Amino acid sequence: MKIGLFFGSFNPIHLGHLIIANYMATQTDLDRVWLVVSPQNPLKPKKTLARDRDRLHLVRLGIADNTRLRASDVEFQLPQPSYTIDTLTFLKEKYPEHQFVLIMGGDNLASLHLWKNYEQLLAGYDIYVYKRPGADLGALADHPRVRLYEVPPLDISATYIRDCIKAGKSVRYLVPDAVLEYLESGTLYR
Ligand code: ATP
C-alpha cells in the first residue's frame, strides 16, 4: 500500500489535523494515512506537552472508525530526538511491502533544507504538501518529488485549544466529539 505519514505532536489532535489527513487519504493516490505521534523530547520542557500515551489515545479517539487513518506510536521506541529520516528508514525496513510518502504543510517545506539529511529524504521519498494561507513554499516547491495540494484551510492550532481549555472555554467543534468528551472528563491541559 501507499501510505502517507503525517507527523505531529498532536497535543491535542484537532479538526485541522484530521481534515488534512482525511483529504490526503481520500483525494490523492494514497491508500492510508498514518498519524505519527512524536514523543516527548527529553531535552525539551514538558510543561505543556501531555504524556505520549495520552496524546496517542486522543489521536485514536479522533480517528474513530475511519479505516483509512491510523495512529502510529513508532517513534516512541526509537532513539530520541527522532529525526524523520531515521523514522522513515526504520519503517521502510519494518514494512517492506509498503511505500511511504511524507505529508507536510507548505511552511515546513520552506524550511526542509534545514532538516537532517534532507537531500536523502528528497531522493528516497515523495512529499505531499498542503498549501497554507500566506505561507511561502520556498525553493523546493518545484522539486520533482514534491506534489502540492489545496486542502481547505482551518486556522486552528493545538496551542489555541490548550489555551481555551486552560481558560475554561469550550473547544466544541474544534476537536472531534470523542476527543472533547475525554478532555472534558479529565484534567489534561488544565
Ligand atoms: P501547536 O499549536 O502545539 O504547535 P499544532 O496544532 O501546530 O500544535 P502539531 O501536532 O505540531 O500541531 O501539528 C502537526 C502538523 O500539522 C504540523 O506540521 C503543523 O504545522 C500542522 N498543522 C497543525 N494545525 C494545522 C492546521 N490547522 N492547518 C494546517 N496544518 C496544521
The CATH architecture comes to: 3-Layer(aba) Sandwich
Q: β content, as a range?
A: 15-25%
Whole-number total of structural domains? 1
Percent helix, as a range, is: 25-40%
Supply the helix-strand structural class: alpha/beta
Average of per-residue pLDDT values: 95
Can you tell me the overall shape? globular
User: What's the number of extended β-strand segments?
Assistant: 6
Q: Which regions have little confidence, pLDDT < 50, spanning 5+ residues?
A: none
If helices are DSSP runs of H or I spanning 4 or more residues, what is the number of helices?
A: 7
CA-CA gap between termini: 40 Å
Provide the spatial order of strands within the biggest beta sheet. Answer: 3-2-1-4-5-6
Provide the CATH superfamily. HUPs
The major pleated sheet works out as:
6 strands, parallel
Give a list of the ligands. Answer: adenosine-5'-triphosphate
Q: Which sequence of SSEs, written as H and E, runs from N to C?
A: EHEHEHEHHEEHH
